[in-house]
């Protein structure tokens, strides 16, 4: 309260602005919902209750025995999630997504089987209408292939207990179609890939159902006695179910992404459109920074593919990482026209303040434009806590000159202003993810490569290694999940990309006009 009153006094005196910079709001309540163990226990208990409701409703043989088996499988599923996917287990939103998706598929299976048992649905068609690949597709696209395989295994186990008896045919069909659905969605960057996955799932379902006798039977000795109409309906049900499952998954993905704060490669690719208002503004007001960002995107995307990072995130984040420079574009080297620089009229401290502020300005613009939180993280982390060395060294030099001049003029030592290193540092934090670290390195290396007079492969390699060693010595990469081997793989990728980007061109001879050549011929003849 006292801080607010003090701030408004400064505003009233004209010593502060009434506007406040946008900040990412962090709520203790939301943090408790996301990571609190009571919420986690509630989610696990709710899944058990839902599973029990599916088993004890309808006509089931030995429901208590099946529920006990389901609880044992559930214990295995929780242990598997805790050991192999600890990040998902600790984030309640993701745990809710996993359990909710599994329960949704099991509920659909129960509804279809209940309709078949009541006679509302043909028993010969009902097994082919089950969306075996729903949960594997959803979790594979949203959380990765390992989560998709997890869904395929445990949905198959629980589903085989819901069909009235432990059905090995159901188990095999569900497992194989789930695995195929995950396999064909390893890298989904277009929604059409999901439809293609649905076609493969439908084909696999049809082949397996035919192999296990769920389609037909075909009486080859007496073809006229075969019910070809039913076989046609069964085949159509298998294909349509697979395709319809993929279409439904494609339709609900945007809603699930927004609800659970997850961004898929499909959405990242949509965000890479260079017609975004911020990028168009950057290209017009800071064209040098815009072209620098495109070069950083190419460098970081190629490097990310080598170390298991997400190349699409690196590309999109690179586009926006320097967006804060549009506020004062002419104070940055790549946008300064040939001639004088505005920094000539400023003190080193003020120049460093303007340079450092582009990070906060970038976060402010990103929040205003409602960019993805991962992009905002890269904007705030891409300089880490590094120092603006040029202006820091310039300030130290001015301090030394002032001391020499002070000795001549008998000035006291305390009258010479001190140079604080913290005034020349970026606020941080240091890169926390592979993608942020890669963009950070690509940004500094691409900028430094522009100063090379003759960019030979050896000079480029030396430049890259010196910058990376300096970053390692400063501890700027200590918090990023990168190994030393991965860092040098990134360096090799940068070297290869820069050698191709900065290769020397042939100096073509100047073309003389005809009149000049004729004059030379006359002189030689004379």
Give your account of this protein's structure:
- With 526 residues, the protein is mainly α.
- It has 22 helices and no strands.
- The longest helix is centred in the middle third of the chain and has 33 residues, at 228-260.
- It has two domains: 29-266, no CATH class; 273-388 and 425-501, Hypothetical protein af1432.
- α6 runs antiparallel to α7 (134-143) and α14 packs across α21 (484-501).
- It is elongated and about 105 Å long.
Tags for this entry?
0% strand, 526 residues, Hypothetical protein af1432, 2 domains, elongated
Please give the structural blueprint.
Elements: H1 2-12, H2 28-35, H3 37-56, H4 63-84, H5 86-90, H6 92-117, H7 134-143, H8 145-162, H9 168-183, H10 191-211, H11 228-260, H12 265-271, H13 277-285, H14 287-306, H15 311-320, H16 348-368, H17 373-381, H18 389-408, H19 434-449, H20 457-474, H21 484-501, H22 514-525
Helix pairs in contact: 3-4, 3-6, 4-8, 6-7, 6-8, 7-8, 7-9, 7-11, 8-9, 9-10, 10-11, 13-14, 14-15, 14-19, 14-21, 15-17, 15-19, 16-17, 16-18, 17-19, 19-20, 20-21
């Amino acid at each position: 309260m006292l801080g607010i009153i003090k701030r408004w006094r400064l505003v009233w005196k004209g010593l502060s602005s009434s506007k406040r910079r946008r900040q990412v709001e962090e709520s203790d309540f939301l943090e408790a919902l996301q990571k609190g163990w009571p919420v986690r226990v509630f989610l696990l208990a709710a899944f058990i209750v839902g599973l029990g409701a599916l088993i004890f409703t309808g006509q089931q043989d030995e429901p208590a025995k099946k529920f006990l088996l389901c609880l044992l499988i559930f214990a295995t599923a929780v242990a598997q999630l805790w050991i192999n996917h600890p990040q998902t287990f600790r984030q309640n939103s993701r745990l809710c997504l996993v359990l909710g998706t599994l329960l949704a598929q099991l509920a659909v299976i129960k509804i279809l089987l209940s309709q078949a048992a009541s006679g509302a649905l043909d028993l010969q068609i009902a097994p082919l209408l089950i969306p075996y690949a729903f949960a594997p597709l959803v979790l594979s696209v949203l959380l990765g292939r390992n989560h998709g395989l997890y869904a395929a295994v445990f949905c198959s186990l629980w589903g085989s207990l819901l069909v009235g008896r432990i059905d090995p045919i159901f188990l095999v069909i569900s497992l194989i179609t789930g695995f195929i659905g995950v396999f064909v969605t390893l890298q989904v960057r277009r929604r059409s890939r999901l439809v293609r996955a649905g076609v493969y799932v439908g084909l696999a379902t049809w082949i397996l159902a035919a192999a296990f006798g769920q389609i037909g039977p075909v009486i080859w000795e007496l073809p006229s006695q075969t019910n070809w109409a039913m076989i046609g309906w069964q085949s159509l049900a298998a294909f349509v179910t697979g395709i319809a499952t993929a279409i439904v998954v494609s339709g609900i993905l945007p809603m699930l992404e927004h609800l659970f704060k997850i961004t898929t490669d499909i959405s990242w690719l949509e965000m890479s459109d260079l017609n975004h208002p911020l990028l168009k503004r950057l290209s017009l007001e800071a064209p040098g920074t815009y072209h620098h960002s495109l070069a950083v995107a190419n460098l970081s995307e190629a490097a990310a593919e080598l170390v298991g990072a997400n190349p699409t995130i690196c590309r999109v984040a690179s586009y926006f990482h320097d967006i804060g420079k549009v506020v004062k574009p002419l104070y940055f080297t790549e946008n300064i026209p040939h001639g004088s620089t505005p920094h000539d009229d400023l003190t080193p401290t003020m120049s460093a303040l303007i340079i450092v502020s582009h990070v906060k300005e970038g976060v402010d613009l990103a929040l205003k434009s409602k960019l993805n939180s991962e992009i905002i993280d890269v904007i705030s982390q891409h300089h880490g806590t590094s120092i603006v060395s040029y202006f820091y060294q310039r300030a130290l030099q001015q301090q030394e000159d002032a001391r020499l001049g002070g000795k001549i003029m008998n000035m006291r030592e305390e009258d010479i202003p001190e140079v604080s290193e913290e005034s020349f540092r970026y606020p941080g934090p240091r890169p926390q993810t592979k993608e942020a670290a890669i963009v950070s390195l690509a940004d500094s290396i691409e900028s430094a490569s522009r100063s090379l007079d003759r960019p030979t492969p050896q000079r480029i390699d030396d430049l890259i290694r010196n910058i990376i060693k300096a970053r390692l010595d400063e501890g700027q990469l200590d918090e990023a999940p990168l190994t030393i081997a991965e860092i040098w793989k990134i360096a090799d990728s940068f070297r290869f990309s820069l050698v191709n980007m900065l290769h020397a061109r042939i100096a073509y001879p100047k073309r003389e006009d005809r009149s000049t050549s004729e004059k030379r011929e006359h002189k030689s003849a004379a």
